[in-house]
Design goal:
Elements lengths: L11 H23 L9 E11 L9 H8 L4 E3 L5 E10 L4 H22 L3 E3 L21 H13 L5 E6 L3 E6 L10 E8 L4 H17 L6 E2 L2 E2 L5 H8 L8 E2 L10 H10 L16 H8 L2 E2 L1 E7 L5 E11 L4 H19 L11 H14 L4 E4 L3 E4 H20 L4 H13 L3 H11 L4 H14 L9
Parallel strand pairs: 10-11
Antiparallel strand pairs: 1-3, 1-4, 1-7, 2-3, 5-6, 7-13, 8-9, 12-13, 14-15
Length: 466
């Protein structure tokens, strides 16, 4: 969940104080880690889901404040735009039927949210990019009224010297768009997995998450369209990267490399290489690490390390796996989570610094190839050379993920059956959307009507009829 701030503008004194506190807290994080003060408790998992609010014509409905006011639920919070919401679930110990428990908790919360939306003459939809959104919907008039969003917009534009943001995506079609604000980011909605790991293993899971991202994304695409254009299988990836582009290292990226000894290295890189976007100074003690966490919160690595706190107050490390789209259904998202968690465990425990012997540059190339081509991508993998994504998943990585879940004590192999069936049928959410649009002669509204009907059924996407 994003942290609200008290202002939308910052003085030189604010920036100097923030820089000082950020440096102090980064050194403290290193010290605490070296002295074994970060939690080494068992693995836990939590989830965030970003959802669209649409009207009965499948256009964005800018009523999130109304929904939130009626709902009044601590696990449902605003997103950047007025037509998005974020749903969260409390974390679960990663053992036994944790994914089934999470599935049940999230579907209950979803039903509650949708009941409120229906009373307000709207519906919620889980989809990576909304096919019916228009360029004109993405304006500051549709930004959620929170200081952190206005400040983010102002600071990104300040770093750009006031220059507009350009989006240029070459896929099946080509899209070129120019915006005077960061609202293009709101066109991407995701399913984010939080994996809390023992501190001494966290960097291995981080490296494993990077290595696994390409093959996982190949099996999970659900964002093929934007502004009437057929683009990548996961158009969210280039769109988000370009929507907040500013001078300096990329704010949205796979990062600069693997971690070598601890995740603290990534926070030290944040301090060294990134300007503060939201230099809000707090009065909290350094041990709260609020400046470090706020600074990290506006650097959107696709696998982002996070610092949080256990109920005891001890700091912990977790990885936020950000690559996955929302939807098509909750059962699909839990299947994607099973693939990620099992494969991350298998790679992290297999030696080779957690990356399974895959070079960082190859992992990065795999990721963008998978985002663009889905199951048609050809990926590099140790011992296989270059291999088709579907073959790699079926022959190597889904079996590895099953072994990883068993090693964690997670009895959720049925979720991986769904991934396997999706890969064998080659029907991801993106593939279904393309086929369904063709069957409806390019009518995006008819596509959305069919998509929403099938989503309500709860059936996994590989079973959907076109």
């Amino acid at each position: 969940m994003g942290e609200e701030i008290k202002t939308t503008g910052f003085t030189p004194a604010d920036k100097a104080r923030f820089a000082s506190r950020l440096a102090q807290e980064t050194v403290l994080a290193r010290t605490l880690h070296e002295h074994g003060k970060f939690s080494r408790d068992d693995h836990m998992v939590g989830f965030e889901i970003e959802t669209w609010i649409v009207d009965h014509n499948y256009a964005p409905s800018s009523i999130n404040q109304n929904v939130l006011e009626v709902l009044d639920h601590p696990l449902v919070v605003p997103e950047l735009s007025r037509f998005n919401l974020e749903l969260n679930c409390a974390p679960f110990h990663l053992a036994g039927d944790a994914l089934t428990q999470a599935h049940e908790a999230l579907t209950r919360l979803w039903a509650t949210c949708n009941d409120v939306a229906h009373r307000l003459d709207a519906n919620l939809v889980l989809i990576g990019t909304l096919p019916t959104i228009r360029d004109s919907d993405l304006t500051l008039a549709n930004m959620s009224p929170l200081n952190r969003y206005y400040a983010l917009n102002e600071e990104v534009l300040r770093l750009r010297g006031g220059a507009p943001l350009h989006v240029n995506i070459a896929g099946r079609d080509r899209l070129a768009s120019v915006h005077q604000d960061v609202m293009l980011e709101a066109a991407t909605t995701s399913f984010q997995i939080h994996l809390k790991a023992p501190a001494d293993l966290a960097h291995l899971y981080y490296n494993a998450s990077i290595a696994a991202s390409g093959p996982i994304l190949a099996a999970c695409g659900n964002a093929p369209f934007l502004f009437g254009k057929a683009l990548w299988e996961e158009t969210r990836i280039p769109l988000f990267e370009q929507a907040v582009k500013a001078p300096g290292p990329a704010r949205v990226s796979m990062g600069s490399g693997y971690a070598t000894r601890s995740l603290i290295e990534i926070f030290e890189e944040n301090l060294r290489d990134y300007d503060a976007l939201l230099p809000m100074a707090f009065d909290d003690p350094p041990e709260a690490m609020r400046h470090l966490r706020l600074h990290n919160g506006v650097i959107w690595r696709w696998n982002r390390p996070l610092i949080g706190f256990d109920e005891s107050g001890a700091p912990h490390l977790r990885i936020e796996h950000r690559i996955l789209p929302a939807g098509p259904t909750f059962i699909d998202m839990m299947a994607n989570a099973a693939l990620y968690l099992g494969l991350a465990r298998a790679l992290a425990m297999a030696g080779d610094s957690g990356a399974g012997g895959l070079a960082f540059n190859d992992a990065k190339r795999n990721f963008y190839s998978a985002a663009r081509f889905g199951l048609d991508a050809r990926l590099d993998w140790p011992g296989e050379g270059q291999i088709a994504a579907d073959r790699l998943l079926l022959e190597r990585l889904i079996p590895d993920a099953r072994a990883g879940l068993r090693d964690l004590g997670v009895a959720e192999g049925d979720f991986l059956d769904i991934v396997e069936a999706r890969v064998r049928t080659r029907q991801t959410g993106a593939a279904w959307q393309r086929k369904a649009l063709e069957a409806r002669d390019g009518d995006l509204y008819a596509l959305m009507a069919a998509y929403c009907e099938r989503q309500r059924s709860g059936a996994p996407v590989h079973q959907w009829e076109t």
